[in-house]
Amino acid sequence: MVDNSKGASHSGDSDALLVERVQHGDKRAFDLLVLKYQGRVQAIVGRFVRDRDEIADVSQEAFIKAYRALPKFRGDSQFYTWLYRIAVNCAKNYLLSRSRRPPGSDIDMDDSEQFSGDLRLAELENPENALARDQLAAALEAVIEGLPQELRSAVTLREYDGLSYEEIAEVMSCPVGTVRSRIFRAREAIEAEIARVRSDVE
Amino acid sequence: MTEQQQRLKQTLSALADGEANELELQRILRELDGDAAPLLRQRWQSYHQQRALMRGERFAAGDISAAVSAAIAAEPAHRKSRWNSALGSLSRVAVAASVALFALVAVQQFDGVGNQPPALEFAQESLDADHYNGPALQFPSGFRPELNAQTVSARSAGSDRASSAALPLNVGMSEADYLHSRSYLLNLLERHQRQSASIANPALLPVMLPATLPSDR
Question: Which UniProt keywords apply (chain B) (predicted)?
Answer without folding.
Answer: Membrane, Transmembrane, Transmembrane helix
